[in-house]
């Protein structure tokens, strides 16, 4: 039997805590999740939690980072199925908004996340999305597909529109009804960047 290194054991402990926290935060919300119950679920102590994440808020930040990164990856994969860069960008934004219907995403990322961690635009996962959107817009501008525009400003506004639409869907009493309205408005707003909407 191969003996695992300390680094491997620490990585496994961190992964187990995040997995348990995802489950606890999804079931009970951030406020209702007990750290003692969570650590007991994976056979660890509060000390392990504090060592890896500092506190409960730090644990939530790690969980949000993981889920939001997964959301971005899923949305990107959907976008990549399109035949051109513009439709890829639109479908990626729409897919991100649609993921707001997922109960785990609603509760952890879109409801508890902003109330505990603050402005989503400052989250590391959102900053990576911003860079990816900027790259896509630069390519679209090089291809004369979109109007001359400040790339960072346009990327921030597009990403902000998608995030705020997702927040609206998640916080709505009728998320399925709101979804269609949000996606339609997102696409209409984004279309203002196009040189020729029929291209």
From TrEMBL:
> From which residue to which does the signal peptide run?
none
Matching Pfam families: TetR_C_41, TetR_N
Q: Which InterPro entries match?
A: DNA-bd_HTH_TetR-type_CS, Homeodomain-like_sf, HTH_TetR, Rv0078-like_C
**Entry keywords, A to Z:** DNA-binding, Transcription, Transcription regulation
Which ranges does the entry annotate as DNA-binding region? 34-53
The record's section on Gene3D superfamilies has: Tetracycline Repressor, domain 2
The record lists the membrane-crossing segments as none
Please tell me whether the keyword Transcription is annotated for this protein: yes
Please report the stretch or stretches of sequence annotated as the HTH tetR-type domain.
11-71
What GO annotations for molecular function exist for this entry? DNA binding
Q: Which PANTHER family match?
A: HTH-TYPE TRANSCRIPTIONAL REGULATOR YJDC, TRANSCRIPTIONAL REGULATORY PROTEIN
Name of the protein in question:
Transposon Tn10 TetC protein
Which source organism does the UniProt entry give? Kushneria phyllosphaerae
Gene name, Swiss-Prot/TrEMBL: tetC
